[in-house]
Amino acid sequence: MIIIPKRDYDASQLENLIGWLKGRGLEVHISKGENMTVIGLIGDTSKVDIDLIRSLDVVEDVKRIQEPFKNANRKFHPQDTVVHIGGVKIGGGNFQFIAGPCSVESESQIIGIAKAVKAAGAKLLRGGAFKPRTSPYAFQGLRGEGIRLLLEAKRETGLPIVTEIMDISQLPLFEEVDVLQVGARNMQNFELLKELGKTKKPILLKRGMSSTLQELVMSAEYIMAGGNENVILCERGIRTFETSTRNTLDLCAIPVLKSMTHLPVVIDPSHATGYAKYVKPMSLAAAAAGADGLIVEVHNDPQHALCDGQQSITPEAFASLAENVEKILPFAAK
Amino acid sequence: MIIIPKRDYDASQLENLIGWLKGRGLEVHISKGENMTVIGLIGDTSKVDIDLIRSLDVVEDVKRIQEPFKNANRKFHPQDTVVHIGGVKIGGGNFQFIAGPCSVESESQIIGIAKAVKAAGAKLLRGGAFKPRTSPYAFQGLRGEGIRLLLEAKRETGLPIVTEIMDISQLPLFEEVDVLQVGARNMQNFELLKELGKTKKPILLKRGMSSTLQELVMSAEYIMAGGNENVILCERGIRTFETSTRNTLDLCAIPVLKSMTHLPVVIDPSHATGYAKYVKPMSLAAAAAGADGLIVEVHNDPQHALCDGQQSITPEAFASLAENVEKILPFAAK
Amino acid sequence: MIIIPKRDYDASQLENLIGWLKGRGLEVHISKGENMTVIGLIGDTSKVDIDLIRSLDVVEDVKRIQEPFKNANRKFHPQDTVVHIGGVKIGGGNFQFIAGPCSVESESQIIGIAKAVKAAGAKLLRGGAFKPRTSPYAFQGLRGEGIRLLLEAKRETGLPIVTEIMDISQLPLFEEVDVLQVGARNMQNFELLKELGKTKKPILLKRGMSSTLQELVMSAEYIMAGGNENVILCERGIRTFETSTRNTLDLCAIPVLKSMTHLPVVIDPSHATGYAKYVKPMSLAAAAAGADGLIVEVHNDPQHALCDGQQSITPEAFASLAENVEKILPFAAK
Amino acid sequence: MIIIPKRDYDASQLENLIGWLKGRGLEVHISKGENMTVIGLIGDTSKVDIDLIRSLDVVEDVKRIQEPFKNANRKFHPQDTVVHIGGVKIGGGNFQFIAGPCSVESESQIIGIAKAVKAAGAKLLRGGAFKPRTSPYAFQGLRGEGIRLLLEAKRETGLPIVTEIMDISQLPLFEEVDVLQVGARNMQNFELLKELGKTKKPILLKRGMSSTLQELVMSAEYIMAGGNENVILCERGIRTFETSTRNTLDLCAIPVLKSMTHLPVVIDPSHATGYAKYVKPMSLAAAAAGADGLIVEVHNDPQHALCDGQQSITPEAFASLAENVEKILPFAAK
Lengths: 334, 334, 334, 334
Prior knowledge:
Chain A has helices at about 10-25, 50-55, 105-120, 145-155, 190-195, 215-225, 255-260, 270-275, 280-290, 315-330; strands spanning about 1-5, 25-30, 35-40, 60-65, 85, 90, 95-100, 125, 160-165, 180, 205, 230-235, 265, 295. The first copy, chain A, is an alpha/beta fold.
C-alpha cells in the first residue's frame, strides 16, 4: 500500500499515522523528496481499511498494491482448486455440466428432467426450491417440499444436487444438499456468507448483478475466512444499459477470475441472456474462454415452466449443446 | 396488459392461453385485424407473471399497462402516507432530519453525537450496529452491544433510533428499535422483507445499488403485502461508470417515486456521494426536489471514525446544513 | 405499433390522431373494450416517431412491434450479407482476421507488422492514422502520413487496409483505403454516417461504448439508407461499472446482431479487454459464439508502442491465437 | 505521478525508463525499500501517457496524483470563469436561464417562443437547427434555414442564441451564432473540438451520455488548449440501467465539476429526465446544488412539437419554474 500525504501535511499528524500503522505490524518506508513524500507499507495490508486511511486529513491519496484478499488469492495458492462433490470434480481441468429446471415443480418433472440431463452428460442436477422473485405475487418455489423432491431425484439418478439457499434459517433443510447456491441478490448477504463459511459444503457463489469481480472474490473470501475452501464462482450476467438480453454476460470474467484466484469458475448462460436461443452460442463461448463448467436451465416443457420458461432449453437442445461443447473443450483457453 | 400473439399463431394454443387467463379472473378482449391480433386483459394483472406469458410459443410480445404493484400504488391511494415514529411524523409535508454516525463506536461517542444532532434539528438518530462490509477483515460493527448503546442514547435524548438489520435471526434484538433499516445489499433479500412485513415497525428501505425504482417499489410491496404499511423509501446512489463520487445520486427518484407511490422518500447524501464536501449541496438539492427527509452521517471526529469517515460531516457542518435546508423547504417542489 | 389511449381520452383528439396516422399511409385498427381501447397500426411504422406519439395528451402508452430499421433487418433480407474487400470476403461463413498496430508509427514498423500478420493468417491490415485520444496532449496519430504508410504496406503485402476516419473533411485522404472504420466515439456522428452512405466503400462500424445494439443497427441503417450496403458491425466492449477490464466485452452481441440483421459481425478483443493476456481467451470465445472475424492489435514491440501497448500482442502470440481460432471455427455456433 | 516497478524488475529496463522520464523534463525521485521501490515524478505530468507507462514490462502499477488537465484546472485558476455572451454573463455568481424549443420549426414558432421565454426571464434563446437523431427516418432539423430563423428571433428579441453544431463543415453557417453547442454524442468528436478551439466563440459542451466527469473536462481541455477559454459545461443526464427516466441526471456533477474546474456549469433537466413533469423539480434541485444556469426546452405547443414534445414545457410552466428557481438561488450551495 502506498500513502501519499498532502503537500503541506502536519508533521505530528503524520507521526501519529505512522505509529498506528506500525502498531498493526506493518513495515513502513518513508521517502521524502523535495516536493513529495511517499509512504510505502509492506506486510499484510489486506486487513487495513483503505477508506479509513483516505479519510484522514493528512492524506492526499492511497493506493493498494496488494489485493485485499488472501485465501482466494492465486498468488498465495498458484495451483487450481478442485472442488469435490460426491465423486464429481470441478476445476483444475475438470469441466462439468450442471443442468435442470429453474424451479422444481413436481416429482415427475424433476425426475424426468434429471434422467434426461444425466443421459446428455450432466454430472450435477440443479433446481430451485426457494425462489427469489421480484414480485411478492410471483411463484416463490415449493421450498422445503422442493428440496425433498430434489433429493428424490438424486436417489433415482445418483446426480448430486445444487440448489439455492436464501436465508440462514433455511440451513437445516439443506443438510443432504450437495452444493449450496448463493444467488446474485445474496452475494453480499454477509451474515449468510459467514454462516456458510462454518460448513464444509461446496458453495456455488453467483456474482451480484452489479458487483465487480473483486467484490465477488471478497465475498468468496468471507466464506473461505470461515474455513470453507470449497467455493465455486459463477458469472451470470451483469446489469447494463443494454436491453436486448436480460443481462450482459461478462465472459472476460473467466480469465480475469482465473488470474485473481485459484477457484473454479462456471458460467450461467440461461440467466445471463434470458433467451433460450442465446444459450448455446454463449455456452460454446464460455467453454472456449476456459470456463470450468456450465449451469444451464433445462425444462422438459419450457412453454409451461412455472418460472423463467423463456430462457430454458429442452433436454434435446441440451444434449446437442453438450455435444458441441465437448468438441470445443480440447481447444479452449488454458 | 396487452398480449400480441405471433402472426401465424396456432389457434388452439391461443384458446388455451385465453382460457387460462379467464381462469385467473381476468376479462379478456380480443381484437382481430386483418394482419394483427391484439389481446387486452382487464382486471388485477399485478399477479400475472409477465415473463411466463412472454415465454409461450404463441406469444410475440406482452406489455404491461398497469403497474405490477398495488399496496404501494398511488393510483389506489392518492394521498401521501405519513409514517409515525414515536411522536415524529415523516411524509405528507413533514420533512425530517435523520442523523448520526456510520457506526456506533462507544457510549460517549453515540450519546455525544445524539445530543449534537438533536440540538441541530435532527428528530431521529441513526447509527450502525450491524455493518455490511465488503471485506471480512473490515470492522463489522458492535452488533448487539451497538443496539444497546443506541437505546442508551435514545433514553438520554428522547430521539427515536434508526438502525440496520442484516438478517432475520437478528430480529429479537430489534424489539425496542424504532425504525428498522434494510440496507441496499438486502433490498432484494425477500425472506427478510417478508418477515418485516409481519411486524408493524416502520421500515426504512434503501434502494439497491443497481435496482430500478420499480424494483424498489416491488420490495416495498413485499413488506406491505405482509400487512406492514409503514415503509419509508430511501435513495442512496446507484452504481454507474462515474468514479468521481462513490455512487451516482439519482435525485429524480424523488418525483418519480412520488408519482408511483404514496410512500415518504428520504435521501442519503453521505453514502451517495462518499465525500463530506458534497453532502451539503446534495442535501439542498434533495430538499428542493421535494424529498421528505435526509439521512446524514455525522461524526464528532470524522478523522477517526471506524468506518466511512471520509463521508461524515461534523456536528457543526450538520447544523449549518440543516439551517440552509430549512430555508429552501418553503420553495421546494411539491 | 400499438397505441393505448388514456382511459378518459378526448374523442376528438383521438380522431385527429387517427386521421394523422392514416395520412401517413398506415392501416389503423381500433379495438374498443369496455374498459380499454387499443389502436393497432399496420404498415411501415419504421418512419413513425414513437416519442412524438408518446408525447400526445391523448396517449397513455405506445409500443413498437416492428423494429425501426429496414435495410439492415434480417426479416426483409434473410440471407447473410457477404462484404467483399478486394478479393477478401467477410460474412456468410467467411471468417477473417484483421490485424495490425493501434497506431502507424513508421514505415519499417507497419511493413514489418503487415508481413508478420499476413504470415500468421491475417487477410486485412489494420492501423490507426487518425487517433481519437481522450487527452489533447496524447499522441494524435501520423494522420495523412499514416495513411500513406499504410498504403505502402498494402503495396508490399497485398493486404487490403482498414483505418479510422474521424471527420468528413478527411474523406479525400481515404480514397485508396479499402475499409473505412468508424470508431466507437463516432458511432452517432450522423453527419459522417450520411456522408459514408454516399460512398460504396466497406464500412467497419464500431459500437459506441454505451450504445445499445439497436442503436448500433440504427447507425448502420443511416449508412445503408444512403445506398451503401457494405457495413460490417463491430463489438468492442461497452462501458460498465467493472474496472478489471477496460470495457466489458458483450459477446452475446454476436447472436443478437445476427438475429436482428444480415450484416457481418466482428469482435475487437483488444480494445474490449485492454490487456494483452485476455485477448486470446476472448478471441476463442468470439469465434465459438459465431463471429465473422476478429480485429486484433498486433505490435512487434508492444513495450514501446506509441499507444495502447498494454493491449497489443506480439506477432508470435497472434500466430498462436489464429491457429487456435481455426481449430474452434468448425464447431462454432451457426 | 507514482510508478511502482515490479518486485523483480530488470535494472537496466528501469534505468531506461528513468532516463526517458528525465528526458521529458520531469524530476524523478526513487525510493528503494527492502521489499518495494517507488518512483515519484515531479513536474508537468499532464503530458505523460499513463497507459504507455503502465504497459511497460518493468512496471507493476502507476498512479496519477495530479490531474491530466491544466487549462481547465481550478488549482491553476482558482477564481470562477465568467463567460460573456453579448451583454449576458454566466458563471461566477451569474445564474442564467437558456430556453427555447428542441427544434426550430417555423418563423412564427421560434419568434413566439423567444418572446415568451424572454418575458419569463430567459436571457438566452436555444433552438435546434441541426438535430442528431437515432433514426435516419426521424426529423433532422431545418439545418441552415433553422439558423436563419434563430437569427431572425434574435433580431426581434435581442436574445443571444445557442444552437448545436454537428460537424466542422457547418462552421461557416454559425458565424453569427452566439454560443455553439456541442451535443452529448459529439463530446469526443476531437476534430470538431480542436476546430472550436481556434474560434473565440463561447462553447456549450454537453457531457456524453456515458462519459465520466474527467472525460468531460478533458474535452473542454481540447478546446482550451486551442486558445478558446469560453467553455460552459453542461450535465444532461447519463445512461444507466434505470428506465423510468430517459437518462439519470447526475446533479453531483455540479459540485464535482466546480471543484475540478473554474468553468461555469449548467444543467439540462429536459433531456436528462425526458418528461415535462420532472423538469421543474430537477430545475429547483440544480439551482440549490449551485448550478450556474439551466437550459430548458420550452414549446408553445408541446403536443405538436416535431421532436421531444414529451419533455418540453409550456411558456407558462417555464415562467412558474423560473420564479421558483429565483427564490431558491439565495440559499443555493456556493
